[in-house]
Amino acid sequence: MLRPSSLRLLVRAQRVQSPAFQHSLWSVASSNINLVPPTRALLWRPIAQKIALQTRLFSDDSTKKPEGDKEEENEKEEKGATEAGAEETTGEGEGTETFEEEDLEKVKERYEAEMKESKDHLLRALAEVENTRQRSLRDVENARKYSIQSFAKQLLDVADNLNRAMESIPEEKIKEENADESLIALYQGVGMTQKELQKIFNANSISEFGEVGEKFDPNFHEAMFQAPDETKEPNTISVVLKTGYKFQDRVLRPAQVGTVQKT
């Protein structure tokens, strides 16, 4: 009776195509049935190596395909790979093109928004610069135009004193035949000084305002009191206590007046 190891050797022999090699395996397997294990192992080792080599070669030959079929299969694989690559490339191209168009639109919109914002900032800056320039020119013009305003305002007290001096001397005493020569000289000197000061005021655009009968205007007049007067219209000036003065279009001092009270 054959042992399992001998059976396996015989099965492998069936797979080997060489008849001579199969016969040698059969004879060895039959003659080694009753050998002791060490001796059997020494005998089987080279045979097992040959069996393994032949079995691998036979397996490779059985799985090897004809060269024509292999070339055809390679061509099919290359064709399929080419088509797949073309489809993938086409898909990627379409996706890339779509992505690029969308990306360009977004970039365009962003740059248009930034350009609009920059233009708005530029226009605002230019407007601010123009406003600053106009304001500076106006300040320079006002400084030049009203440079003597404070000085002119200080001269108003001098004009008031001259007016009071002229009013303190009645004209009847000056016109009398036996009038005092010194009083006449003083009166004439104060009058000449008053006229000279008025010329200076006129030369520098300083003018008087506030007369009896004018309509009361809070922008130019300062009402000190109200009194009824049937001969005059209500809300008109009845008495001028202190003359008002203007320097060009600015009020140096409002006129202090009394107004007619409405009855």
UniProtKB/TrEMBL annotation:
Residues 58-103 are annotated as: Disordered. Residues 85-103 have a biased composition (Acidic residues). Signal peptide: none annotated. GO terms for molecular function: adenyl-nucleotide exchange factor activity; protein homodimerization activity; protein-folding chaperone binding; unfolded protein binding. One of its GO terms (biological process) is protein folding. The keyword Cell membrane does not apply. Keywords: Chaperone. Pfam families: GrpE. It is found in: Mitochondrion matrix. The keyword Transferase does not apply. Residues 58-68 have a biased composition (Basic and acidic residues). Belongs to the GrpE family. PANTHER family: GRPE PROTEIN, GRPE PROTEIN HOMOLOG, MITOCHONDRIAL. This is GrpE protein homolog.
